[in-house]
Design a protein that fits this description.
five-stranded antiparallel beta sheet; 13 strands; Hsp33 domain; binds zinc ion; about 30% strand; CBS domain Like; 10 helices; alpha+beta; six-stranded mixed beta sheet
């Protein structure tokens, strides 16, 4: 079954909900990154979250980026949903042996204390950004906190990844259920109870098979109606030009240092691990375009 994200309304429009199935998307990401089990769960949750936030965007032109940075050994996770609905992401440190005792604390333990940052690029000069301190580092809890306190929308967020013993993806799914202004506050208690009954979004997806099935389970008396649906997949959009722009952003001093040390500069895309090579001549051209540093006073 192809991956997709759906948008739905329930209880006569007083609830909006999102759900997805990103099993193949996470499988592709794992193929690129060779992720350890905890990193796979972290990236799967982040990709699931950001794909639903892409559907949530007011304009379909938005790019949504979720950045989680923590002091723990995993370092954090980055996930991006493009305006076309393609997903990409990476985990800062995928070296499982460096996680040590933190693995006992799961994803949250390995991410550690830090912050969650959402950037919505609307194609205008200044992107919209919102930041909150991490609550548990488990990503779902942190996003629920973000929606409730940063965007003032009471929300239930559940993100789930299960792996098979051979490290293939058994399930990767998520849901976000949000109360619109004026909604009956009892609804949140009812859906929280349903989440306990269903145990986890992974379990629900395995039983119900589709994102709509999961939302139907969560809100059996809500008359859930699909209001949007989009295919999702893992796709990196890196290019030589984009990588060169990244190098240019390092600044004049750093560029001069690189040229003095290397004839050929190699850069690796974080999202798909593609390698790009640039001759130092190409980097020199970037220097010409940059304003020299002026020391005044
Ligand atoms: Zn790439």
């Amino acid at each position: 079954m192809a991956d997709k994200v759906i948008r739905a309304s329930a209880y006569g429009g007083s609830v909006r909900a999102f759900a997805n199935d990103i099993k193949d998307t996470l499988g592709t990401a794992m193929g690129y990154h060779g992720l350890n089990p905890l990193a796979a769960v972290a990236l799967g949750r982040a990709l699931s979250a950001v794909s639903m936030m892409g559907e949530m965007a007011k304009s379909k032109e938005d790019t949504v980026t979720l950045v989680i940075k923590g002091k723990g050994p995993m370092g954090g996770v980055v996930a991006v949903c493009s305006k076309e609905g393609t997903l990409k992401g990476y985990v800062v440190n995928n070296d499982y042996s460096s996680y040590g005792n933190c693995v006992d604390g799961g994803v949250g333990g390995c991410i550690g204390a830090g912050y969650l940052n959402i950037v919505r690029d609307l194609g205008m000069k200044e992107p919209y950004t919102g930041t909150i301190p991490l609550q548990s580092g488990e990503i779902g809890d942190d996003l629920a906190y973000y929606f409730t306190y940063s965007e003032q929308i009471p929300s239930l967020v559940a993100l789930g990844v299960k792996l098979n013993p051979d490290m293939t993806v058994k399930s990767a799914a998520g849901m976000i259920i949000q109360l619109m202004p004026g909604a009956d506050k009892d609804i949140i208690t009812r859906i929280e109870n349903r989440l306990r009954e269903g145990r986890s979004v992974s379990n629900m997806m395995e039983k119900e098979k589709t994102p709509l099935g999961v939302l139907g389970f969560m809100m059996p008396d809500g008359d859930v109606q699909i209001t949007g649906e989009k295919s999702v997949s893992y796709k990196c959009d890196c290019s030589r030009e984009r990588m060169l722009r990244g190098i240019a952003s390092l600044g004049r001093d750093e560029l001069e240092k690189i040229i003095s040390e290397q004839d050929v500069v190699e850069t690796t895309c974080h999202f798909c691990l593609a390698k790009y090579h640039f001759q130092s001549e190409e980097i020199k051209k970037l220097l010409v375009k940059q304003e020299p540093t002026i020391n005044s006073g």
